[in-house]
Amino acid sequence: MIYLENIGRYFLMLQSVFSKMTKWSMLRKLIFKDIDDLIIGSMGIVCFISFFVGGVVSIQTALNMNNPLIPKYLVGFATRQSVILEFAPTFISIIMAGKVGSFITSSIGTMRVTEQIDALEVMGVNSLNYLVFPKIIALSLYPFVITIAMFLGIFGGWLASIYGGFSTSADFIQGLQIEFIPFHVTYAFIKTFVFAFVLATIPSFYGYYMKGGALEVGKASTTSFVWTSVVIILINYLITQLLLT
Amino acid sequence: MIEVKNIKKSFDGVEILKGISTTFEKGKTNLIIGQSGSGKTVFLKSLLGLFTPEEGTILFDGKDYKTFSDEQRRQLRTEIGMVFQGSALFDSMTVEENVMFPLRMFSKQSKSEMQDRVDFVLKRVKLVDAHHKFPAETSGGMQKRVAIARAIVMNPKYLFCDEPNSGLDPKTAIVIDNLIQEITDEYNITTVINTHDMNSVMEIGEKIVFLKNGVKAWEGTNKQIFKTDNKSVTDFVYSSDLFKKVREVYLKELED
User: Fold this and answer.
1) Nearest CA in chain B to A130
2) Residue of A115, A117, A131 to mutate, testing the B interface (most B Cβ within 10 Å of its Cβ)
3) What is the pTM of this model?
4) Domain identity same for B164 and B151
5) Cβ of A118 and B50 within 8 Å?
6) Quick check: is B212 in a domain?
7) What is the ipTM of this complex?
8) Residues 6+ apart with CB under 8 A from B74
9) Where is the domain boundary, B155, B174, B193?
10) Do B184 and B205 share a domain, yes or no?
11) Does B237 reside within a domain?
12) Contacts of B154 (CB under 8 A, 6+ apart)
């Protein structure tokens, strides 16, 4: 029952987020601040993980190809497919649910605990629009993060396969180009846009409606990470079923 | 003036406010007192519109809040200043930005006019060198002053304070009490203070509403509270030996 109640409350929250807009001059500053916190601030970890996981994907693929009849370019092919279809959009989004999601939940949750949200409401500010809308706009730049993750993942795979002696550069690049379906990139970006919305709104929901003190802020962050991940995985399944089958 | 008529509020079936009626007068410091759990905060938040009472009416200068349109409610909110118990300053903003926040949100003043107004109110609360400090870099007393400055920057008609001197040393608490009273007199506003600080009751309680278990158990002034024989009030106000003695001395002086 509590799940149904939360789902209903989540959609009511979304309704409030898009009503009674805050002054543009204020929103602009908040959006830039959120771009800095949520997008720029995540680049380091995204680059690091993408590069090395791309490398690992390529090494694992190469190590599992024992049959000499399997062409060497498959290392590049498998790396490209894994990175573009799943690793960059989905795996990075799960990581972002931990990094960005818990940041959003704890910052909004702390504002709730310290009555800063009440202060906004008393002043006549639509606190949901003020707090959540800029995060949704800032995270609409999330596909750029994923583009970089895709590039670095493939680049890491290329470096690992060449310097590990698993494939030649020419084979790897041939694998990247072979049977390339542009719609797969479109599919990845459609997912990314949906995940960006989920990343902005579910952690905000758990932060905004939390009750209690500092301990509950920590609990809300954990719950928000769990549910953001669950929703991302479910949506991933649904979009894949809808777009790729 | 704020008139409250028979407001009732429950949470999860438990009745917290059981029909409270009172009047908070303009130009006076009106105090709501009572033990923890007596319903003070719920009462204050109901006045502020943060909670919606199930029954009763709240009249702001004769106008029923329930009948207000969204635009009228928004307008009313710009006429309300609130000082929260923990100050509720925005952590990511400097003192100056905190005070300027309501102006930037709602006023059509130019940047220089806003700056002048912020400088004026910060000077009024005796904070002159704190403009660029963040709340975390200031003391509890300074944070309260910033909260007061933010509450009065829009020239409010109504000022609400929730435990304005909790967590402050006695000297700073008196400074904050006096500041609130001066501002109330100066701007002729309706001030409602939620407190259980007996110094505040004695010093600035021009009108006192005593709540007990969600009902109004007594109301009067800080002069009348010395003379009352209402047991609930005397048990609460004169629970310490010091205040018992203060009361005895006061009553003796009156007799003499």
Assistant:
1) B105
2) A115
3) 0.87
4) no
5) yes
6) yes
7) 0.85
8) A124
9) B155
10) yes
11) no
12) B78, B79, B81, B102, B103, B106, B107
